[in-house]
Amino acid sequence: MSESNRQLRLKTRPEGDVRREDFDLVAQPLPELGDGEVLIRVLYLSMDPTQRVWMRDIPQYLPPVAIGEVMRALGIGRVVASRSAHYAEGDLVQGLLGWQDYAQLHEKQLAASGYVKLGAQAQQLPLPTLLGACGMSGMTAYYGLTDIAPVQPGETLVVSAAAGSVGSIAGQIGKIRGARVVGIAGGADKCRYLVEELGFDAAVDYKAGDWKQALKAATPDGVHVNFENVGGEIMRAVLSRMVIGGRVALCGVIAGYNSDERPADDFSVAIYKRLTIRGFLILDYKQAKEAVQALGGWLREGRLKAEETVVDGLENAPLALNRLFDGSHRGKLVLRVDPAS
Amino acid sequence: MSESNRQLRLKTRPEGDVRREDFDLVAQPLPELGDGEVLIRVLYLSMDPTQRVWMRDIPQYLPPVAIGEVMRALGIGRVVASRSAHYAEGDLVQGLLGWQDYAQLHEKQLAASGYVKLGAQAQQLPLPTLLGACGMSGMTAYYGLTDIAPVQPGETLVVSAAAGSVGSIAGQIGKIRGARVVGIAGGADKCRYLVEELGFDAAVDYKAGDWKQALKAATPDGVHVNFENVGGEIMRAVLSRMVIGGRVALCGVIAGYNSDERPADDFSVAIYKRLTIRGFLILDYKQAKEAVQALGGWLREGRLKAEETVVDGLENAPLALNRLFDGSHRGKLVLRVDPAS
Predict the structure, then answer these.
(1) What is the pLDDT of residues A1-23, one digit of tens each?
(2) Residue A238 and residue A243: Cα distance in Å, rounded?
(3) Is A250 in contact with B270 (Cβ distance < 8 A)?
(4) Is the dihedral of CA B326, B330, B331, B337 positive or negative?
(5) Which residue does chain B place closest to A257, by CA atoms?
(6) Which fold has domain A136-283?
(7) Hey, is A204 helix, strand or coil?
(8) Are A281 and B271 in contact (CB under 8 A)?
(9) Rounded mean pLDDT of chain B?
(10) Nearest-CA residue of chain B relative to A58?
(11) What pLDDT is attached to residue A261?
(12) Which CATH number fits domain A4-132+307-336: 2.30.180.10, 3.75.10.10, 3.90.180.10, 3.30.70.120?
């Protein structure tokens, strides 16, 4: 076990793309554990668009990461030392571990919401999948289409950022629920992947010139449910195809996360189509058992395909985050912090 | 009875403010009534922001008014001649009568949705009130706050365009339902009117420099329900004050009706506050009896105050419509077509 802990601490708030220099890489010896404290070796970190928002000093659902603070990130780690009766060496823990090699946490922090000890059943799945299809990403897709904007058999579901971690699961859940599923993604490769590997009914390449026409052609009966991850121009195009009374599960508007420019959205279509648009956050679903059981079952049965893009090295976290916005990954983007994991 | 019928027919689609020249004023003799036809003298016309949208060739909930067509408008008229067994001279009819002195309609058209014969109880109210507080405007306010985004006692309701036909009723319904009601309106006079005459708890003058600060001060517990008529910058300011899980009854976004410029709205707040935003149109409420009975009762009891701004003369319809957007009216704006009414 390494005696030093590397941490990436926010130094300056990025403008546009995240730069390596926006973070200080600090190495320091691991301190002694106090009573009730647990030392966790970080194995994998989840790379999520919401992290880009956490770097910004704007109103949001959690406090922004402070300058000088270790960058907040969800991850999976293994307990390597414990002075808590509730945690033993070898336990796997999922929660906010941060951009660092080791997280030193008190059992009281670990008892708070946002941390779970992974049981035997969870450990049958690969760790990246526990952060992706069977983690926050999958659960977000699950509740978006079962609670926020339930999709019914025969309805048309359009998913944006459809080759991403949430979108790829949302589309597959739509198929499991009997909907016609159309994905929007960037590039012919991703679109082929959606249709040929994930079983989407159609895919629209928003990087192709005629994509709005293609969206129209792919949704001859209009759009009943929109699982929205992108916002901006893509969301407007989908809204224009919605049926009267359509529902939008508003999961993300990443078109605006990376910039201070506001996307020019327009609510008038929400009126004349009598849309219900519901923003939601997965952190409201404290009891995620139902989702995890459903997702895990579908994964085991092969009805759900999990895909991850793995980047190595804690020091690569800042630049890796940009890949969430430039479209150069597929499925869940995770960072492998411990090369042995 | 005049032997000629003046009609205002759409000539060119307005850009920005409506101009007199955008309409042809055509006078022609009244044709003979065919079998089943009814001739209706137009008494009052309702002036509504949605009419500005009807003039535009964009997707919307009804077909745009065609070039050469009589401008569509809701109104109240009296039957002056009838070759239908269902209508007698003297009957009062409410429905889409159009910008004209006389509407000649077949009983089959009158039987379609959008037309009602006014009964004895309705006739106890002034005709402008039947187009305003006890008409579409009042019903829109009623269903917005009872069905789309029901407001509960003790909650804070913010209404934009609060001195307008819908907003002034929405705010009063909020008070009847026990909410704290804050109105947003333009100018000190309107704000005084909201608080002193209509009983709003507070009013925010968006023409004053510090209005966002004033909105914050007026909503110390945040905003639970937003009855939204305006959109754009005003809606963004209200959304920023909403509580988690807040509800928006999206009735109108008039900030964008008069121009082809899109307001720069932003859905990200809808996510981090988990908002439900529901667009709605009063025309979905086919059975409006409940609303009309409630509104009529409150009016008779003096719990609801109806205010109308009356403009005279059919020929003034185009320029009068602009008053809906420049803030120079209060309450319901109606056009008196028949000087004797």
Answers:
(1) 457 999 999 999 999 899 999 99
(2) 10
(3) yes
(4) negative
(5) B268
(6) Rossmann fold (3.40.50)
(7) strand
(8) yes
(9) 90
(10) B269
(11) 54
(12) 3.90.180.10
Neighbours of B220 (CB within 10 A): 9
Closest Cα to residue A144, out of A278, A332, A330? A278
Angle, CA B277 vertex, CA B272 and CA B282 arms, to 5°? 170
Yes or no, beta carbons of B280 and A262 under 8 Å apart: no
Give residue for tokens 């998913």: A159
Interface test with A, best of B267, B282, B285, B286 (most A CBs within 10 A): B267
Chain A residues interacting with chain B (CB cutoff of 8 angstroms): 53, 59-61, 231, 235, 240, 244, 250-253, 256-257, 262-281, 284
Record: contact B271-A284, CB cut-off 8 A: no
Is the predicted pLDDT of residue B58 greater than 90, yes or no? no
What is the C-alpha to C-alpha distance for residues B72 and B8, in angstroms, rounded to an integer? Answer: 10
pLDDT for B265: 54
Tell me what ipTM this predicted complex has: 0.83
Q: Do B277 and A274 lie within an 8 Å CB cutoff?
A: no
CATH of segment(s) B4-131+308-336: 3.90.180.10
Give Cα separations from A141 to A133, A162, A278 (angstroms): 9, 11, 14
Contact A278 B281 (CB under 8 A): no
Nearest to A271 among B269, B270, B281 (CB): B281
- pLDDT tens sequence across A59-104: 888 899 999 999 999 999 999 999 999 999 999 999 999 999 999 9
What pLDDT score was predicted for residue B259?
61
Contact A265, A236 (CB under 8 A): yes
Domain-by-domain residue ranges, chain B? Answer: 4-131+308-336, 136-284
Threshold 0.90, pTM exceeds: no
At the top level of CATH, the class of B136-284 is alpha beta
- Nearest Cβ partner for B264 among A251, A262, A273: A262
Q: Which residue has the higher pLDDT, B39 or A287?
A: B39
Nearest to B280 among A256, A266, A274 (CB): A274
Instruction: Tell me the pLDDT tens digit for each residue of A195-205.
Output: 999 999 999 99
- Contact of A325 with A254, CB cutoff 8 Å: yes
Joined tokens for residue B108: 């089959």
The C-alpha atoms of residue A66 and residue A188 are separated, in whole angstroms, by: 40
Contacts of A257 in chain B (CB under 8 A): 268
- Whether residues B274 and A280 touch (CB distance < 8 A) is answered with yes
Residues of A in contact with B281 (CB under 8 A): 271-272, 274
